[in-house]
């Protein structure tokens, strides 16, 4: 399958919900639910769906009817705002401004991914915690404790195709299989990965993580182009991945984070030609005192050289 065909398939999968959504359409009609956007499933579970421009968007299946109704309400708030019809008007009216801001900052496709994978509540709690920590950084030790010590996982120097129009980052196979969730090579379903911005501010970046059998490569797709654009990445810059050294920092309720990993992402800009402020031709130091790094095939090597040097600021 070509890359363009794969991307088209992913877009169609987002709308239809893959095999799960297709099965819901093909199943015999069962007694309708009392909730808007909720459909019963043959296996006794409940599905949720919403329509966008006359096209059905599958939101996933849930163990009980109320949970499916809640998923529909979340989608309705993102797709149609506070004025949209929901199943629980009281809860929607009382929705905090922070949750509405959280939804507004996400593409619709990412909200749908969270609902399908039942990670929306966890992602919302994490975003609210990060925002609270960012707002109180100068006010005590608790905010400082919520920023954990990080352990480096791996880094990659991005290529022209990584920052081009393909909207994907190719993750080195060795690192993907070592640090990211396992994916089956035979038509694996994509996984949504969340990374906190190591620069702080409470921002969380979400990327769709997939395995492309056509090129036998692991890739971060949906959400990647936004990261490239907002960070101003160019070929030769470095993207670094890390994770919290501890499962949870002090001050967080026990069991709320549990064994859930907190992963981080940051970028380091390659020194641009003529950007040195030192006045010394070929000087490889950043204006802020960064270190010189030499890359060979995307990996750091110890020797320092003018060609290929980058600034780590």
UniProtKB/TrEMBL annotation:
Which Gene Ontology terms of cellular component type are present? nucleus
Residues of the AP2/ERF domain: 34-89
Q: Where in the cell is it found?
A: Nucleus
Q: Which UniProt keywords apply?
A: DNA-binding, Nucleus, Transcription, Transcription regulation
Give the primary localization class. nucleus
Task: Say yes or no: keyword Transcription present.
Answer: yes
Q: Where is the TF-B3 domain?
A: 154-263
Q: Which domain of life is it from?
A: Eukaryota
Q: List the InterPro entries.
A: AP2/ERF_dom, AP2/ERF_dom_sf, B3_DNA-bd, DNA-bd_dom_sf, DNA-bd_pseudobarrel_sf, LEC2-like
SUPFAM superfamilies from the UniProt entry = DNA-binding domain, DNA-binding pseudobarrel domain
The protein here is known as AP2/ERF and B3 domain-containing protein
| Source organism | Urochloa decumbens
């Amino acid at each position: 399958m070509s890359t363009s065909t794969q991307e088209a398939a992913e877009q169609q999968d987002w709308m239809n919900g893959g095999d799960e959504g297709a099965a819901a359409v093909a199943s015999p009609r069962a007694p309708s639910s009392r909730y808007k956007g909720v459909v019963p499933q043959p296996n006794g579970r409940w599905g949720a769906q919403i329509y966008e421009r006359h096209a059905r968007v599958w939101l996933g299946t849930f163990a009980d009817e109320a949970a499916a109704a809640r998923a529909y309400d979340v989608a309705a708030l993102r797709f149609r705002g506070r004025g949209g019809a929901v199943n629980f008007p009281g809860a929607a009216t009382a929705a905090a401004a922070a949750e509405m801001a959280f939804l507004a900052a996400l593409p619709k496709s990412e909200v749908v991914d969270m609902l399908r994978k039942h990670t929306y509540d966890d992602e919302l709690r994490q975003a609210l915690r990060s925002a609270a920590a960012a707002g109180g950084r100068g006010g005590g030790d608790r905010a400082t404790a919520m920023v954990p010590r990080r352990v480096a996982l791996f880094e990659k120097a991005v290529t022209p195709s990584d920052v081009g129009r393909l909207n994907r980052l190719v993750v080195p196979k060795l690192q993907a299989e070592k640090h990211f969730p396992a994916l089956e090579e035979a038509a694996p379903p994509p996984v949504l990965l969340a990374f906190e911005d190591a620069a702080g501010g409470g921002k969380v970046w979400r990327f769709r993580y997939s395995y492309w059998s056509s090129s036998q490569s692991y890739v971060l797709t949906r959400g990647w182009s936004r990261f490239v654009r907002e960070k101003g990445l160019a070929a030769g810059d470095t993207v670094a991945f890390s994770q919290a050294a501890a499962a949870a920092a002090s001050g967080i309720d026990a069991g709320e984070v549990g064994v859930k990993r907190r992963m981080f992402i940051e970028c380091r800009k390659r020194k641009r030609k003529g950007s040195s402020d030192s006045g010394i031709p070929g000087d490889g130091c950043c204006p802020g005192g960064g270190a010189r790094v030499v890359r060979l095939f995307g990996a750091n090597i110890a020797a320092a050289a003018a060609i290929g040097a980058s600034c780590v600021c």
